[in-house]
Design a protein that fits this description.
By secondary structure, the protein is an alpha/beta fold. The chain is built from 8 helices and 14 strands. 30% of the residues lie in helices and 20% in strands. Belongs to the MAGUK family.
């Protein structure tokens, strides 16, 4: 009996390690089309996406090619397809970015040297790319952002997203926070910091500061429980994630002032804050409002040490 000129692929789903892991979502930072990718194992199975799309990674068993779905704004998902893995795409991006620079440097050397020098350098270049390792390329690739890890935010009437103010020192972030809290104490609250200094008369633990020992504070630093921390006159001060979540659980909105370098830590903390940039006024206005005189001494702010 002759076989028909077509075949049917029957997919049998078996449990794998990736299926047992929590859902993983990423935001793409590049455009991708499988039709223009000659390295993909099967172009019809590739998943086309654009920069900014949210992808749900369903399988990462292959180190070079992931299985993913596109997630749309209404919650719908596309059919699964193949996309380049993070490390593979980082190598591609690093090669694309480094080649024009290397070529420009080579052209500049060729203009300065003679024919014999060009031939000598060409030979060295061939040996370098054929025999040299790609460790330098991997180092460059590690800094290339291809996929950004994100989390799926489930709407909840009880969740209060924190408000984070950032801006240059002296632009009035503290004043804005005080005015916002004073406008409605039942809705907004300041975040109580942790500190290792002694309790002053009239201060209440948990209200003025969370007073802890230096050993406890340093242990929290190692466990990355602070968004940022600083040392002033031998004493440690820090803003913890637990203090922010405590306000959220009480039904109020935490309002805090953070340094811009702490935003990366905040972004991956699961707090999902609203970040507000407080722009600096014009220089003339800043000089007037921050003028130093006998009745207004200069206040020097200690720089923060950040956990990134």
């Amino acid at each position: 009996t002759s076989l028909p000129n077509y075949f049917i692929v029957v997919c049998v789903c078996t449990p794998c390690l990736s299926s047992l892991l929590p859902q993983k979502y990423v935001r793409a930072h590049f455009n991708y089309s499988p039709k223009t990718d000659d390295e993909i194992p099967c172009q019809p199975l590739g998943l086309r996406f654009e920069k900014g799309d949210i992808l749900e990674i369903s399988n990462q068993d292959d180190p070079d090619w992931w299985q993913a779905r596109k997630v749309f704004d209404d919650g719908a998902e596309s059919l699964p397809g193949l996309i380049p893995a993070r490390h593979r795409q980082q190598q591609r991006e690093a090669l694309t970015r480094s080649y024009p620079l290397a070529k420009a440097m080579e052209d500049q050397h060729r203009k300065k040297k003679g024919l014999m020098s060009r031939l000598s350098r060409k030979k060295k270049k061939t040996v370098f790319y054929n025999q040299g390792s790609n460790q330098s390329m991997l180092a460059v690739g590690d800094e290339v952002v291809t996929y950004e890890d994100v989390v799926r935010m489930e709407s909840s009437a009880h969740w209060r997203r924190p408000i984070v103010l950032i801006g240059a020192s002296g632009v009035g972030k503290g004043t804005l926070i005080r005015k916002l809290i004073n406008s409605d104490h039942t809705r907004f609250a300041a975040v109580v910091q942790h500190t290792t200094r002694l309790v002053h008369p009239g201060e209440v633990n948990g209200h003025t500061y969370h007073f802890v020992t230096r050993e406890e504070f340093e242990l929290d630093i190692l466990q990355e429980r602070f968004l940022e921390h600083e040392e002033v006159k031998g004493q440690l001060y820090g803003t913890s994630v637990s203090a922010i979540k405590k306000i959220v659980e009480s039904g109020r909105v935490p309002v805090l002032d953070l340094q811009p370098q702490s935003l990366k830590r905040v972004r991956y903390s699961g707090l999902m804050p609203y970040v507000v940039l407080v722009a600096s006024p014009r220089l003339e206005r800043l000089v007037v409002t921050r003028r130093v005189g006998p009745e207004r001494p200069t206040r020097r702010r200690t720089s923060f040490q950040f956990i990134i």
